[in-house]
Amino acid sequence: MVVRHAPESTARLLPVPGLVVRWLISALALWVAAALVPGMNLEGAGTLLVAAALLGFVNAVVRPVVVLLTLPVTVVTLGLFLLVINAGMLALVASLLEGFRLAGFGSALLGSILVSLVGALVSWNIGPSGRVEVLVVRSGDRP
Known about the structure:
Layout: E1 2-5, H1 8-11, H2 18-36, E2 40-42, H3 45-69, H4 71-76, H5 81-96, E3 100-102, H6 105-122, E4 134-137
Helix pairs in contact: 2-3, 2-6, 3-5, 5-6
């Protein structure tokens, strides 16, 4: 039996909406990528937070349309074209913000991979409510 629950210590904290937590995780992922990827520059915390919000919006609205339109290419490349789509979404956000610069496609590709990896690692134990979740596995039929 697998049970997911929030630990007791987080139950006493003020609840933070999951959207805000995911926005901050995206901002952290963008910050890490900007620090590690040559040619990816974010100027200031304000730009970082706006870029994270805009990236979330672009990934929620624009990306599904682009994925659907490029489905044949994605199937032929066994899904690798999704990396190009992710880089394109990051480049779109950079083109919309003044303080966010990408040197080229290579920076966008490496940056999008890092943003995805860091975001996945950080949000590994974050549930839809925005709280830390702990996976408890119990063996046997104990109540």
